[in-house]
Amino acid sequence: MKAAKATARDARFAILMDGDLTPTDRLRSQVAGARAIAADGGMRHAAALGLEPEVWVGDFDSTPDELLGRNGHVPRHDLPARKAISDGELAVMRALEAGARSLVLCGAMGGARSDHMLFHIMMALRIARERDIEVLLTSGTEEASPLLPGKPAMPDWPAGTLFSVIPFSPLSGLSIERADWPLDAVEVAMGSSLTLSNVSADGLRILLGSGTAALVASFDV
């Protein structure tokens, strides 16, 4: 008997991470119907997003007893506290092994540890480039996504959204159409603020010729 083909729902995963999260209507719509995996303290976001994680990954050394008790029915994958990879990355790896083609990393953009946020963005860039997988990082009030060379980005942000293109390498051939500050095939040095704090209009389109970059957008709530 042939195995059934994966459905769109089977291919989209929400990874619940332990950063700040505001459960906006936009975020709820982005994860509606997705399979979910919780990474340690990220389980605290499940109820607000209407998600039931199929597995809970973590070392649980700092997870409150109340959260553990309330979600004791969720299958757990216990990990050692001392390990070479974060709980969040291990949760992402589990989703990829399960056939994920789209990832929404919830709680990946905020929190007390800015180093975690930077690693999440770099991980998303690597996954998108190596596996051709859509990755969205979100806190509900802020989103980030990889900008890949040769693939036009046409975000569904409301007109007036504040956004930046963050260069993680020198960029070439960067064009931005339908924004307050349009650009036409420009070069951007790594670390330049040229692409900081733009404002989108309807029909925003962004194209990168070469380089490594991420889009970051902020939303009024």
UniProtKB/TrEMBL annotation:
<dbReference type="GO" id="GO:0006772">
    <property type="term" value="P:thiamine metabolic process"/>
</dbReference>
<dbReference type="Pfam" id="PF04263">
    <property type="entry name" value="TPK_catalytic"/>
</dbReference>
<dbReference type="GO" id="GO:0009229">
    <property type="term" value="P:thiamine diphosphate biosynthetic process"/>
</dbReference>
<dbReference type="GO" id="GO:0016301">
    <property type="term" value="F:kinase activity"/>
</dbReference>
<keyword id="KW-0418">Kinase</keyword>
<dbReference type="GO" id="GO:0030975">
    <property type="term" value="F:thiamine binding"/>
</dbReference>
<feature type="domain" description="Thiamin pyrophosphokinase thiamin-binding">
    <location>
        <begin position="150"/>
        <end position="214"/>
    </location>
</feature>
<dbReference type="InterPro" id="IPR053149">
    <property type="entry name" value="TPK"/>
</dbReference>
<keyword id="KW-0067">ATP-binding</keyword>
<keyword id="KW-0808">Transferase</keyword>
<dbReference type="GO" id="GO:0005524">
    <property type="term" value="F:ATP binding"/>
</dbReference>
<protein>
    <recommendedName>
        <fullName>Thiamine diphosphokinase</fullName>
        <ecNumber>2.7.6.2</ecNumber>
    </recommendedName>
</protein>
<dbReference type="InterPro" id="IPR006282">
    <property type="entry name" value="Thi_PPkinase"/>
</dbReference>
<dbReference type="InterPro" id="IPR007371">
    <property type="entry name" value="TPK_catalytic"/>
</dbReference>
<keyword id="KW-0547">Nucleotide-binding</keyword>
<dbReference type="GO" id="GO:0004788">
    <property type="term" value="F:thiamine diphosphokinase activity"/>
</dbReference>
<dbReference type="InterPro" id="IPR036759">
    <property type="entry name" value="TPK_catalytic_sf"/>
</dbReference>
<dbReference type="InterPro" id="IPR007373">
    <property type="entry name" value="Thiamin_PyroPKinase_B1-bd"/>
</dbReference>
